[in-house]
Specification:
- By secondary structure, the protein is an alpha/beta fold.
- The protein has 9 helices and 7 strands.
- About 45% of the residues lie in helices and about 15% in strands.
- The relative contact order is 0.19.
- Catalyzes the 2'-O methylation of guanosine at position 18 in tRNA.
Length: about 220
């Protein structure tokens, strides 16, 4: 597509190839989506845990997931993700420092999920600031680099003998908590109109099996070839 081609016009054309129910579902889901919070996972050794975190992001409304792949693999377990990779934007990084730097430049505070002397209990976490929630490896937790760059620390209160949870479980608990509170707040946490259009376009394309042929036809009709 050429840059001057209207996304709105293109979206209207593509939406002719999906059902009204699918279009309505997109709009309903987008009403609950946000970039106020984002999630980052650092070198998660067990791939299915990254996929499960992605699924929690999708289910509870966080649009962007950041995956640091400094040490381990670069694929997503689609069976665990259960299709979430079609609806969540996955941003990949070769180093933890580049991820932290990128997110700080976008205005996020870096929140490390780890027991720490200056940590904050989950229910007391301040949801008003745009925050990037970082989760570490199952074996070693977050790296020293991320810990040093963190603006704050968060932990889940526990009442048993076990001192830690699996990353996918921790992420689900934290994401559900902060998103539930965000949805009930008066904060301006919704996606912008431009962000919604871009996502509607991407999701619509993901929903059309013969998208390459249809895109080709659109370009021919509009002399974009």
């Amino acid at each position: 597509m050429k840059e001057n081609t209207s996304e709105v016009e293109y979206l209207a054309y593509l939406e002719e190839f999906i059902t009204e129910n699918r279009k309505s579902k997109f709009l309903k889901v987008l009403e609950k989506r946000t970039n106020h919070f984002t999630v980052a996972v650092e070198d998660v050794f067990q791939l299915h845990n990254t996929s499960a975190v992605m699924r929690s992001c999708e289910v509870f409304g966080i649009q962007n997931l950041h995956v640091i792949e400094e040490k381990f693999g670069k694929s997503i377990d689609k069976e665990i993700a259960m299709g979430a990779q079609k609806w969540v934007d996955v941003n990949r990084y070769d180093s933890n420092i580049s991820c932290v730097k990128t997110l700080k430049e976008k205005g996020y505070q870096i929140i490390a999920t780890t027991p720490h002397e200056n940590d904050c209990l989950l229910d007391d976490f301040d949801i008003t600031k745009p925050s990037a929630i970082f989760f570490g490896t199952e074996r070693d937790g977050l790296s020293e680099e991320v810990m040093n760059e963190a603006d704050g620390f968060m932990k889940i209160p526990m009442a048993g003998f076990t001192e830690s949870l699996n990353i996918s479980v921790s992420a689900a608990i934290i994401i559900q908590n902060i998103m539930s509170r965000l949805h009930k707040s008066d904060l301006d946490w919704h996606l912008s109109e431009e962000e919604m259009i871009t996502l509607r376009l991407a999701w619509t394309k993901n929903s059309i099996k013969d998208i390459k042929r249809i895109e080709k036809r659109y370009k021919e009709i509009n002399n974009l070839v």
